[in-house]
């Protein structure tokens, strides 16, 4: 039996009678405050209740779609966007994925996908990881739920798996030009590493970022609040490089569950000749590998060439669009996507 609960504004509506056995409860919520049980949430920086609570402080219109049966649970953190539902995320998130637990989770996800068609005609998921078959699970469930689903590779994630190597052994395998740069510039740049947030360090980071090669920070207050929260949890890692006593490069990392996440990095554009970013990255890698003993270093999204100097593997991030073919307003988008798939086939003969 499927019971679609009505718990107030933004939730519930009707019940669907299924076969005998456990009851599947489907419910919709507008805030993480309705989902206090830690069992709903996942590990890592971008799957926790605190992460989504922080997103709720921005201009978002959340919809947390949930399904539960016995010990199995499914949670889709969504946002009401201009074209329909979309992943509840922002540009600081490395990934977005459904939060699944328990043996019945794939079936529950298909039930939830089917129920979402009651009031929604389009859902766009972005930043979906390919590993652990997350993309495949999501695609299959929404197709089973009656949606037309289109998945495409949209971004690249660079990672390193040290496999127990100490930093010295890892560094010996880096490109020769990088190792030469580190030898030549290390004496001119002094590095320091902190594992707790400090206003002074963060101010230095913001000042460096303002005169770096990077565009203006999208939401500096959000990033600062995220960094403070990570420090309180004991996950914070921060590096600062100085030349003649003046800060010239800064990086913000976190370490959690054996993975080091590289969130932000910047150096003063007028200090490029010193390669302070490379020297600081090496110092943080040494800490992550030798002091923290991480199993993975995650360089986030983006296929920047310099990432290949430090990393050894890439993973794909997918964009998934789900359209309800019963709804006329989705037909133009549906036609465009079908046409894009037909063109390569026609060219191939």
UniProtKB/TrEMBL annotation:
Keywords, alphabetical: Transferase
Domain named BioF2-like acetyltransferase: residues: 178-307
InterPro entries linked to this entry: Acyl_CoA_acyltransferase (IPR016181), BioF2-like_GNAT_dom (IPR038740)
An example Gene Ontology molecular-function term: transferase activity
Phylogenetic classification of the source organism: Bacteria, Pseudomonadati, Pseudomonadota, Alphaproteobacteria, Sphingomonadales
Organism listed in the record: Aurantiacibacter spongiae
Protein name from the UniProt record: GNAT family N-acetyltransferase
Keyword Transferase appears in the UniProt entry: yes
Signal peptide: none
């Amino acid at each position: 039996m499927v019971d679609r609960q009505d718990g107030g504004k933004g939730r519930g509506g009707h019940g669907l009678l299924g076969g005998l056995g456990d009851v599947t409860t489907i419910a919709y919520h507008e805030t993480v405050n309705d989902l206090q049980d830690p069992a709903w949430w996942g590990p890592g920086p971008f799957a926790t209740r605190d992460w989504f609570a922080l997103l709720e402080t921005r201009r978002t219109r959340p919809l947390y779609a949930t399904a539960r049966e016995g010990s199995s649970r499914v949670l889709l953190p969504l946002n009401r966007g201009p074209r329909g539902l979309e992943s509840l995320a922002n540009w600081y998130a490395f990934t977005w994925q459904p939060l699944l637990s328990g043996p019945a989770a794939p079936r529950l996800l298909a039930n939830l996908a089917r129920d979402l068609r009651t009031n929604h005609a389009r859902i766009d998921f972005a930043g979906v990881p390919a590993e652990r078959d997350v993309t495949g699970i999501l695609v299959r469930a929404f197709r089973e739920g009656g949606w037309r689903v289109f998945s495409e590779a949209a971004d690249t994630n660079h990672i390193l798996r040290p496999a127990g190597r100490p930093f010295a052994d890892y560094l010996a395998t880096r490109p020769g030009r990088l190792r030469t740069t580190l030898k030549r510039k290390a004496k001119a740049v002094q590095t320091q590493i902190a594992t707790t947030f400090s206003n002074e360090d963060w101010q230095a980071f913001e000042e460096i970022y303002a005169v770096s090669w990077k565009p203006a920070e999208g939401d500096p207050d959000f990033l600062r609040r995220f960094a403070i929260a990570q420090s309180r949890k004991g996950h914070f890692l921060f590096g600062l490089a100085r030349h003649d006593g003046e800060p010239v490069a800064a990086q913000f990392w976190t370490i959690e569950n054996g993975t080091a996440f590289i969130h932000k990095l910047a150096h003063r554009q007028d200090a490029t000749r010193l390669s302070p970013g490379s020297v600081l990255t090496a110092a943080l890698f040494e800490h992550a590998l030798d002091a923290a003993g991480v199993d993975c270093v995650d360089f986030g999204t983006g296929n920047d060439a310099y990432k290949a100097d430090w990393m050894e593997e890439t993973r794909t991030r997918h964009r998934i669009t789900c359209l309800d073919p019963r709804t006329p307003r989705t037909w133009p988008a549906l036609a465009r996507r079908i046409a894009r798939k037909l063109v390569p086939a026609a060219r191939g003969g």
